[in-house]
Design goal:
Helix content: 40-55%
Largest sheet: 7 strands, mixed
Distance between the termini: 11 Å
Order of helices and strands: HHHHHHEHEHHEEHHEHEHE
Strand order of the largest sheet: 3-4-2-5-1-6-7
Low-confidence stretches: 1-23
Number of domains: 2
Structural class: alpha/beta
Number of helices: 13
Number of strands: 7
Strand content: 5-15%
Radius of gyration: 21 Å
Shape: elongated
CATH class of the largest domain: Alpha Beta
Length: about 300
């Protein structure tokens, strides 16, 4: 999915109650002074100009050249208990849910999140996992999996993103994790829980990268060790989003979806093959996978 894509899911999305603003009692000035981003003298200058002009503190500070947009974003993140991503963050710009939380595409992701909570994650204690699948390789699975994981974490859900695409993994690049042990290494007994990486800039989000590219990804995913791993991780996380390789080329996606129990299908307008999509849908249903919905990209 491209950066400005707006994912759609059927039926009509519902809205979840908003989370209370934890830091609402502290002013922007106090927050910035405590963080060392603003001096007391400059705070007084802004307050005097604010009284004269009647504008908001942040707008006044930026007009005087004493605050940056980044300073205001930081203060608001503290006021509303929201993850803050600095302009200089090394996270990929494709992670729009982190970099552009007020954008239209992220609002669509939140609508998608609400439906998934209603239709899967809130319907049973054993329903933690969700595979993101598509027939081809151009639909935007990795983009959707990453950004969907971020919006779940922003809701306060303990969220884990697993990169089960051990063919052409992308999540380690999107989150700038470098080459490190991951899922394949855990399944091969070469790594333990330390392979799961907490994303410091995004509260409640962790990532399990694909790890070393193995010669036998299908066999690794087909073993009971993968099911046991998901069960174990389900005790630590509320939501587990799993990225997969294209289903038309590899059987891995079907295996992952069966282990997770549910799948969200991604298609791309004017790019996805209708026969391949139909074959994928039929195959998942035959394996007993719950299809929670579909996302049409580039609609």
């Amino acid at each position: 999915m491209k950066r400005n894509d707006s994912p759609l899911i059927r039926p009509t999305p519902l809205t979840l109650p908003s989370k209370p603003a934890v830091g609402a009692g502290r002013s922007i000035g106090a927050i910035l002074v405590d963080a060392g981003r603003l001096s007391l003298a400059d705070t007084e200058r802004i307050l005097r100009a604010q009284r004269e002009g009647g504008a908001r503190f942040g707008d006044t500070g930026m007009a005087l050249g004493l605050l940056t947009d980044d300073d205001v974003r930081y203060a608001l993140s503290v006021q509303f208990d929201y993850p803050y991503i600095s302009r200089g963050s090394n996270l990929s710009r494709e992670l729009v849910a982190a970099h552009q939380p007020a954008s239209r595409s992220v609002e669509q992701l939140r609508a998608l999140r609400s439906q998934l909570m209603l239709r899967w994650f809130d319907t049973g204690v054993d329903r933690r996992g969700l595979a993101i699948v598509s027939a081809g390789s151009v639909e935007g699975r990795s983009y959707l999996a990453a950004n969907l994981s971020i919006v779940f974490s922003q809701l306060g859900e303990r969220t884990l993103l697993i990169d089960a695409d051990m063919r052409s993994p992308r999540q380690h690049t999107l989150f700038n994790l470098g080459k490190r042990a991951g899922l394949s290494d855990m399944l091969a007994g070469r790594a333990g829980p330390e392979a799961v990486v907490g994303i410091a800039a995004l509260q409640d989000l962790s990532v399990l990268p694909a790890g070393t590219i193995p010669p036998n990804p299908q066999e690794l995913l087909g073993r009971q060790d993968f099911s046991k791993l998901l069960q174990s991780l389900g005790e630590e996380f509320d939501v587990i989003i799993i990225d997969t390789p294209p289903a038309s080329r590899y059987a891995d996606a079907h295996t992952v979806a069966v282990r997770a129990g549910a799948a969200l299908i991604v298609a791309r307008q004017n790019r996805s093959s209708v026969p391949q999509m139909a074959q994928l849908t039929q195959g998942l249903r035959e394996f007993g996978v719950t299809l929670v919905g579909s996302v049409l990209n580039d609609a």
